[in-house]
Backbone:
């Protein structure tokens, strides 16, 4: 069993999208769930693919932590209601909600179909709305709770993902308003803005094929630290915001990106042009 600091000891957490898209590495939902459990939380692992969440559960239980898988489509209100009820029935209460679920889609307003636009908002913004809608009354009744919403750097600078960017910008806006409305009920609401991190889904889209090493180098060099981040970096930031250590922090959107979003075009250009492009 891993040694625990107990930073969220005995808290009950829901993590949406707690499985991980298959591939090398781990997604943020899986890493967040493992880190919360490692620090003492009991975690309801919510995913539309229960087999993926079961892998997260195995990892948690191998370390001596507590978790339960709950199958739900978080775009559906009745599933979100059932998910909150399952957390309370299984673990007795609800202290932490991590709205991790999200999925990028690419394209501009001309190319994008109306269905793709709607889908981006369903997956990335509606899920935050619905999960929070059902979780907040439980937290309000006990007078405490912490919600962490996952946004994206695409929300604040061009990502080539117009619908995803708009939905993730909406998540930041929702975070501020939710923090305002529910602060007096003892509920804190914050967001994490992941930069370009290594996750199975990101690597399958951005670094597939023979240019993998080159693309990885570009990704690492395009931030201030010159290193790649991964889902564990997002998990540690989420843990902090979810824990009582952040008791006086609400309404913020914390970039976890090694300073990438603060880099100007000239500094970025000078860094990247030193990297030799592969031949052919
Ligand atoms: N990966 C990145 O580089 C990156 C960058 C910025 C932001 N983010 C954000 O981080 C979050 C997680 O991304 P990831 O790449 O780690 O995820 P992931 O694709 O590895 O995992 C997402 C999980 O959500 C589940 N899921 C999909 N639709 C669902 C639904 N309707 N209901 C319930 N579960 C569903 C999937 O089965 C999967 O297990 C997202 O909000 C994403 O936008 C990721």
Residues:
């Amino acid at each position: 069993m891993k040694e625990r600091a107990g930073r969220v000891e005995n808290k009950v957490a829901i993590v949406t999208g707690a499985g991980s898209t298959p591939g090398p590495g781990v997604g943020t939902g899986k890493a967040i769930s493992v880190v919360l459990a490692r620090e003492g939380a009991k975690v309801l692992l919510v995913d539309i693919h229960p087999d993926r969440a079961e892998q997260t559960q195995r990892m948690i239980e191998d370390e001596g932590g507590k978790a339960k898988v709950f199958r739900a489509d978080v775009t559906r209100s009745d599933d979100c209601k059932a998910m909150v009820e399952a957390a309370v029935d299984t673990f007795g209460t609800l202290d932490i909600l991590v709205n991790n679920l999200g999925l990028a889609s690419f394209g501009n307003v001309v190319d994008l179909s109306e269905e793709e636009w709607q889908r981006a908002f369903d997956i990335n913004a509606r899920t935050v709305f619905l999960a929070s809608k059902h979780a907040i009354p439980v937290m309000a009744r006990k007078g405490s709770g912490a919600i962490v919403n996952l946004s994206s750097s695409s929300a604040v600078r061009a990502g080539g993902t117009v619908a995803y960017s708009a939905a993730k910008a909406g998540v930041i806006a929702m975070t501020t308003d939710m923090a305002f409305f529910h602060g007096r009920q003892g509920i804190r609401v914050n967001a994490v803005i992941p930069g370009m991190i290594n996750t199975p889904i990101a690597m399958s889209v951005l670094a597939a094929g023979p240019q993998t090493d080159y693309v990885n180098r570009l990704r690492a060099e395009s931030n201030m630290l010159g290193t790649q981040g991964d889902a564990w970096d997002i998990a540690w930031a989420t843990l902090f915001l979810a824990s009582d250590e952040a008791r006086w922090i609400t309404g913020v959107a914390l970039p976890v990106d090694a300073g990438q979003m603060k880099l100007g075009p000239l500094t970025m250009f000078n860094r990247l042009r030193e990297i030799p492009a592969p031949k052919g």
User: Anything to note?
Assistant: The chain has a mean pLDDT of 94. The first strand starts at residue 12 and ends at 16. The chain is about 45% helix and 15% strand. Residues 12-199+228-261 form a domain with the Rossmann fold fold (CATH 3.40.50.720).
